[in-house]
Amino acid sequence: MAPRVELGSTTGTTPVTPSKHGPNAHEYDLWFLELSNDYNLNLKRSPPNLSPHKKRALPYYWELQFYERLRVHYWKGTHIDIRARFEQGAKDIHIRWVKKPLGDPGVTPFPSQLPRVTTEPERCQLLDLLSQILKEVDPVKQLSRASTPISSYLLNQSVDEPPSPSLRRRSKRHSDEWEGSPSKKSKSTVSEVPSETSYDPDDETTQSVLSVIDRGQTRSSTPLQSRAPSIRPPLDLRSNANRSIYGLTDSVNTSRSTFISEVFSDHNDNEPPQASQETQYTVQASAQEQSKFPVLSETPKGSDSNSLAPSSSTERALQISFNSHENIDLQQNVRKLLDTRSSTRSFSDVTFPEEEEVLREQEASCEEEVVREEVLRPGINVHTEATTPAQPAHTGNTSSHNFEQRLDDVWPHLPSHYDKAPFAVRWELLRVALHCGIRMDDLRLEYDPTWNDQNSLWARLQALPVFQGKSFPEKSRPEAWMAGLKNFQATDQVVILSASLTVNKSTIGPLFHLQLSPLKLDLPHRLDRRFGSDRFLEMVMPSMNSSGMRKLGEPALEDIHRWLVGNSHVLVGRIWSSFFVKTALPKRIATDDILKSESRPIPQERVYLFAEDGNDFHLPKLEGNWAQKGEAVGSHTKMGRGDLIDWLLQISKNQDQPVFKLFSRIALGLSRTRPTVILQPEEIRHRSEDVLSPTGKVMNDGISRISNGLAHRIAALMGLTRVPAGFQARFGSAKGFWIRDTTDTTDNIWIETTPSQRKWKCDYLEADHRTFEVRSEARELKAANLNLQLLPILEDRAIDPAAMKVHIGDFMRNSLLRDLESQKTAMQDPIQFRLWVDQNSPSNRRTERIKYVQVPFAGGLPTSREDRMAYLLDHGFDPTRLEFLRKIAWDLQKQKCEELQERLNVKVGRSTYAYMVVDFAGILEEDEVHLGFSSNFTDEQSGFSETLLHGMDLLVARTPAHYPSDIQRVKAVFKPELSSLKDVIVFSTKGNIPLADKLSGGDYDGDIAWICWEPAIVNNFQNADLPTIPNLFEQGIISKDNQTYRDLAGTKDITSEFLSKAFRFNMQQSLLGICTNYKERLCYARRSVRDDVAVLLSTLISHLVDRAKQGIIFTTQDWARLRKTLDPTSSGSGEPEYKKKHWVKKYEPTHIIDYVKFRVGQPTVEIELKALGESLGKAEHFDKDLLSFYQHYEKLQRPLAERKDAEKGGLFKNSTWEIILGELRKDIDAVFQEWATTVSRKANKDEWDANLATIYSKWENISPTNKVNSKTLRSLQQESQAQVGFSSWDLLKASLCFKLYYRTGFVWHIAGRQLAHLKAYEMSKGIAAPPALMIPSMYAGMRPDAKYARALAARNDGRGLLGMGEDEGEDEDLSSTVDDA
């Protein structure tokens, strides 16, 4: 494994020389820290940079004695005896600590097992104990007030008021010495200290363990039960380049103070903490009282436990320094942690007044300090309560600190007692709590191993009072949950972590609302496979340019940027750091829907974070190496984001690349792919040159070759039934498309890469860089839709524009009529309709089934509408009789028609989409193409059915198309030498300009071409000359940032500077959409796509497409100036008519899109939808077959008249079944009422899924009443059947629910499985065959047999089996077949 390369690091740390004579200051600091934290003592250490005079002015000066006195005992070696005596004394005191929460009578908490203080009086008792032990162990001269107990000093002040500084000043000390502390008057003590601790200049480069913690932020926002989280959200984990082992910054705590100062944190001495007293003390609880309290020790609300909880820095220090590394020598471990400098720190060049004052006033006479520590250095981001001059206040009169605190509060902490829970359980706990608005501290739960079962976890949470009335989120899918409990892997998929941030509209609380997504399975990316998918978090957040973010103001946006990129983020017990960002899809609308009126989508960013550290992380076992591959989820190696980027991009070899281009290459490591063959170094052929034209143009940009043997192995690993012509893939630093070598006849394994494919210099040493990662493969081609963006160019290049409009309109009309007629016919027969559903299902249907190895369900029915219809049809329901099924079919077709007339994706039977590849053999001439099909390509409308194209002209284009020349008319020829390249279109490598480049500047790295050989369109088309492309750089319209990575050398932290610069640039507003929409409007108004203005705008758009990668600079100011120049009359401000709902003009539409939409699409859809509705007729909500199961049990009750008579006579007593069915009815009614108030209302898909999951869980939890004790009830819940939801009790629930609510969708979404089961049994009664049951994986692979369906339809029409023809007798054609769905 290659060693890590740290670049640009300008700060170094001098290693600490191990002590030869005894312990050093680091060891003492850790020992002191552990003692304070174990008992929540909040002990303060002596500030190293203050003079004795200034120390005496500190409000906590009295408490500094413990640090000084214990240090002396530590050097003498008597500290062990002190610790032992203190532990025993603390236990004796602890058993008397019993509190009554809020003074409630009869409520007596069970004392916690650890003697940790939760209130100030308890703390004072332990401090008195410690002081007494110190006297007994080393009774030296006492202080003037030593005879007064500490508790008297601290508690004599009003509990309701902060300690008065004046009271402290009345008790002056005229000496800076404590008992036994080194001082001018006690020089013998100094002599006892080992000589190595004297001042050494080298010591300045190594901070002691607590030097950073003293200045680090500490927070306590909620009461804690036993201890604070091991990792809590710090304000800025990156602002100091020399981060301590705890990852904390040199910032002052200014969070809300409590009665006593936070652990090891400085605060404003002029603002003493506030007191809190709501816990009432009582005598020790009796055994009986203790037994009434749960085992978990709960902390009452309003108690002082919050103030005395250990700080995040303290907890994390102990967790990491002690618990996680017990097998490593402590001193060696600490030195490694102190000396290790991650390459992921942020930068800061601001020196604050507070630091300068400390530096100026530092006195050389600090003789009591045994070890000189490093002073504050410029660049440390110290936050104070007042906004510094360098940071202007934000909107809303909110101080800089408060704003940063709101950012900090975005990440909720997870109590440390959940650390032992599996990561998936911790994620789920926090996810549910966030969704329901519950603080984690309010759960009052200790981890239970039974929570590894998701249903048990949810049942436990739903039973808690704090969750009553709360709607739970969507559950994680079972397969993802099980994989999350293992190692986040499931066969060829991994569990992915994702979250989202939304702006908090309130002026208080976290700036963003965090929402965690359910655990999901997806293909892994390279970084997932190498370091573990649980170390990566994808987070979607509002763009900096969204309206909600812009309202915050520029200073706030700058703070958000620093927080996002420069800070570390603590979540679920791990420290995350962002390392990549890209634009995410807008929140509300699809990006390709250009016919709708321009709405205001919410732009979003997708931020990728990497877990650098965590409670269960450990130090690298081998110094200088990256984390080992295959590490367990609970045992990762600490590693910074700089190391992650260096592993992927090998920075030392690629420093001359532009910053933005190098940053964009990180996306290749995040591309979700299927790993296949790992090639050996000798099997890799790195070509030094591409195929060049006579003019120097690269003719094979992004494409290369692989051997036939390798193609066969890849296809076998992917489970493909045939070997495709090529693969779009990633391989090391290369990306693009690889086709089979048509000249290779061997079984050898090899791969080529070309310069145009290789994006950075890669050594290909690690196996993960030598893995062929498939993104997609060439697949069987199908008829395609004509993209709307091509219509204006087709009209412009038409020999007869009017005829072109008519032909396009005819294609749309015929496509609509054909689709609607096929559905009307199919719905008259369930088997035909089942076939229609399969043929009209989306292409991702198979992908979803493969992912889950089953048909995905939500509640009682499959998730997709197509699968719902198929499921109900498979179980015997008729679409013309069942209203619920009829409505699904109607809504589906209506939506398809509306989308068709909105998007105008006209289906052209003789057209398709295919990958573009090149002819490496040089067989094709310029403007010749080769296209062969792996199976007959059939167009039913025209009767075309062929396996190749030859001797005809066709059109090729790429979308989006802007120049008139972006559609090219070429000649199709078939070449036997290229016959193995099927389902791809092969372009020639001859000529001066590659054909792909003529098509909207395309290349061959996976670009797809639209191909049309429809004569009515092709024969009416003529090519346009290539336009003269204006140089926008010379014209000053756009510019380019060419700064390289090497140019960043000399910055304080090159990795943070690199990421900060790249994030800032990539999160700037992209004007691509704005410019594209403007060009569309302008060209519509001018009725031209080829004038100079259109060409200039098309050129600008082509540059903006690659803006992020090329570093193109084009601002809103640049755009405003350009618009004034191009369109001074603002003719492009009007919206095209085709984006409106109806045609309102008095004249007939002339633009091709207006004509196709308003004169063809709308009238046809309205007429045909009306005809479809009439053909379907009216169906029924009721189905008697679903009621028979309940009716069987209903008969076990007494007749209704008899029950009424008994009730009137006063002798009424319900029988067993009357009680059972009556209680069941009540339970069903309760679930329905919640459905009516939550799920049934309008909601987006995420809200619908979450609400449905909550209701469905409550439905599943309906159990037989406990008001009767009957063996009959137990017999209804057969264990094996109940586990899959088909016990008699489940069927009874469903049948009764149908009786009660058959007119609503509630019964189907909740009990659809059981109703389908009942229907299948009822439908099978009249035939000599029972219903067929299938396991989920087999059902997911089922698809209807078209020939069987046609033959059965022919028999029903009285034609017998005449329609079978020559296929008669083939068994596979007369039965359902298991196939790839």
How would you describe this structure to a colleague?
The protein is an alpha+beta fold and 1381 residues long. The protein is built from 48 helices and 32 strands. Strands 3, 4, 5, 6, 7, 8, 9 and 10 form an 8-stranded mixed β-sheet that branches. Strands 22-27-23-26-25-28 form a 6-stranded mixed β-barrel. Strands 11-17-14-15-13 form a 5-stranded mixed β-sheet, covered by helices on one side. A hairpin with a 4-residue loop joins β23 (928-939) and β24. α27 (830-839) packs antiparallel against α29. The longest helix has 26 residues, at 801-826. It is globular. Mean pLDDT is 76; it is low at 1-21, 98-112, 139-148, 150-230, 232-398, 589-599 and 1361-1381.
Unreliable segments of 5+ consecutive residues? 1-21, 98-112, 139-148, 150-230, 232-398, 589-599, 1361-1381
Shape: globular
Content of β-strand = 5-15%
Structural class category: alpha+beta
Major beta sheet summary? 8 strands, mixed
In whole angstroms, the N-to-C terminal distance is 43 Å
Number-wise, the strands total 32
Average predicted confidence as pLDDT = 76
- The rounded Rg comes to 37 Å
Portion of residues in helices?
Answer: 25-40%
If helices are DSSP runs of H or I spanning 4 or more residues, what is the number of helices?
Answer: 48
Secondary structure: elements and pairs:
Elements: H1 25-38, H2 52-56, H3 64-76, H4 79-94, E1 99-100, H5 120-137, H6 150-155, H7 165-170, H8 187-192, E2 280-281, H9 287-292, H10 305-308, H11 312-321, H12 330-339, H13 353-361, H14 400-408, H15 423-436, H16 454-462, H17 478-485, E3 489-490, E4 493-503, E5 512-516, E6 520-522, H18 526-531, E7 536-542, H19 547-550, H20 554-566, E8 569-571, E9 574-584, E10 604-614, H21 641-649, H22 659-664, H23 666-669, E11 674-678, E12 684-686, E13 703-706, H24 708-718, E14 726-731, E15 734-740, E16 751-753, E17 771-777, E18 784-786, H25 791-796, H26 801-826, H27 830-839, H28 844-852, E19 857-858, E20 861-862, H29 865-874, H30 883-903, E21 906-908, E22 911-918, E23 928-939, E24 944-948, E25 952-957, E26 967-972, E27 984-987, H31 995-998, E28 1008-1012, H32 1015-1018, E29 1039-1040, H33 1054-1066, H34 1072-1086, H35 1092-1105, H36 1107-1110, E30 1112-1113, H37 1116-1126, H38 1152-1176, H39 1188-1194, H40 1200-1208, H41 1216-1237, H42 1245-1260, H43 1271-1276, H44 1279-1282, H45 1288-1301, H46 1306-1323, H47 1336-1340, E31 1342-1343, H48 1346-1356, E32 1377-1378
Parallel strand pairs: 4-7, 12-16, 13-15, 22-27, 23-26
Antiparallel strand pairs: 1-2, 3-4, 4-5, 4-6, 7-10, 8-9, 9-10, 11-17, 14-15, 14-17, 18-21, 19-20, 22-28, 23-24, 23-27, 25-26, 25-28, 29-30, 31-32
Helix pairs in contact: 1-11, 4-5, 14-20, 20-33, 26-27, 26-38, 27-29, 29-30, 30-38, 34-35, 39-45, 41-42, 45-46
